[in-house]
């Protein structure tokens, strides 16, 4: 672990709102390191936030055991895995595999699978005070020698240090950009966990990137995971906006900034200067190397059927008005 920790930058949004393209732009900065994929292991179910809760405020003997097992399994899912899984994923890529497969495959491989596993093993040693072969009510059935982990409860400050160092070491192990001072993650639903993230990363900076909600719905509907009913997708997107509006009241103005994908595309230098000022880094001209003129702005006009348009507007109306009126 390096003496001075990298500072975190979180990009978030509704999904399909520009988080990926913004990361591609910002990762060109000399002070920022990131990986090709969304990190996910912090906010996703069984990730670091769940682990933190189970070992502090919501601690119990069995909750701690379950949380550690689940976190360890989540990390394993995020690595390359056995050869058979690699073959299955290749078959799925070419639409030759009919069954579902877990989507975490290789998302942490950018850090180096061996390093991720060794650093996770180190974290497990720091968290687990004792392990035994035993059976508890939450133990999965039909195991010959199930392992039970004893862990916690931890003081919050102590666990914050362990978990923050764990994430920091992953990013610090990335090759290149030795002068970097920030790491960046673009998992979209970061905005929905912003309050919890500030507890772990007090010096974090959050960037909420938004776009016309109707374009978000149009983009969602094209994805296998996005839903297949216009009204239900609109309800989902409206729910994300409602939750974010409540969460941002809990944050200080120094912790987050909101920018639109449309502004990023139309006025990239001005928008990126604003983002750099928020983060606390100098603007670099290299950030303008990514073309931003293909954001599909206004796609909803061609894609949302006339029969569904009134319904979509009914659910998203307040958020359409707010987003279009922001400076």
Keywords:
single chain, 327 residues, alpha/beta, Rossmann fold, five-stranded parallel β-sheet, two-stranded antiparallel sheet, 9% strand
Give an overview of the whole structure:
There is one protein chain. The protein is globular. The protein has helices spanning 19-26, 48-55, 61-77, 83-93, 113-127, 156-172, 194-200, 213-220, 230-247, 261-266, 268-279, 300-303, 306-325; strands at residues 7-12, 32-33, 130-133, 147-150, 182-185, 205-210, 256-260. It has 2 domains: 1-35 and 174-327, Rossmann fold; 55-154, no CATH class. The protein is built from 13 helices and 7 strands. The model has no long low-confidence stretch (mean pLDDT 92). It has a 5-stranded parallel β-sheet with strand order 2-5-1-6-7, with helices on both faces. The protein has a two-stranded antiparallel sheet with strand order 3-4. With 327 residues, the chain is α/β, with parallel strands linked by helices. 46% of the residues lie in helices and 9% in strands.
Structure in a nutshell:
This protein is α/β, with parallel strands linked by helices and 327 residues long. It has 2 domains: 189 residues, Rossmann fold; 100 residues, no CATH class.
């Amino acid at each position: 672990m390096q003496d001075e920790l990298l500072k975190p930058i979180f990009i978030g949004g509704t999904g399909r709102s520009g988080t990926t393209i913004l990361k591609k732009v910002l990762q060109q900065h000399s002070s920022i390191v990131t990986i090709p994929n969304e990190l996910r292991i912090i906010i996703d179910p069984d990730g670091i936030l769940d682990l933190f809760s189970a070992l502090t405020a919501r601690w119990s003997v069995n909750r701690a055991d379950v949380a550690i097992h689940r976190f360890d399994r989540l990390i394993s899912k995020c690595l390359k895995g056995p050869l058979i899984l690699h073959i299955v994923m290749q078959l799925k890529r070419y639409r030759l595999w009919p069954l579902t497969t877990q989507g975490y495959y290789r998302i942490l491989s950018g850090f180096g699978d061996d390093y991720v596993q060794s650093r996770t093993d180190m974290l497990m040693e720091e968290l687990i005070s004792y392990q035994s072969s035993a059976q508890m009510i939450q133990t999965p059935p039909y195991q010959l020698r199930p392992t039970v982990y004893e862990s916690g409860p931890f003081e919050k400050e102590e666990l914050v240090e362990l978990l923050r160092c764990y994430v920091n070491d992953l990013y610090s192990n990335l090759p290149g950009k030795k002068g970097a001072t920030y790491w960046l993650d673009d998992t979209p639903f970061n905005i929905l966990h912003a309050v919890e993230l500030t507890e772990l990363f007090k010096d974090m900076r959050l960037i909420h990137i938004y776009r016309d909600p109707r374009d978000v719905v149009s983009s969602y509907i094209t994805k296998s995971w996005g839903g297949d009913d216009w009204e239900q997708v609109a309800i989902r997107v409206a729910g994300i906006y409602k939750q974010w509006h409540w969460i941002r009241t809990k944050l200080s103005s120094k912790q987050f900034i909101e920018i639109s994908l449309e502004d990023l595309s139309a006025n990239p230098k001005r928008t990126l200067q604003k983002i750099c000022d928020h983060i606390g880094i100098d603007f670099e001209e290299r950030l303008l190397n990514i073309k931003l003129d293909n954001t599909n702005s206004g796609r909803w006009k061609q894609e949302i059927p006339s029969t569904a348009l009134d319904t979509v507007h009914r659910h998203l109306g307040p958020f359409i008005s707010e987003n279009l009126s922001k400076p």
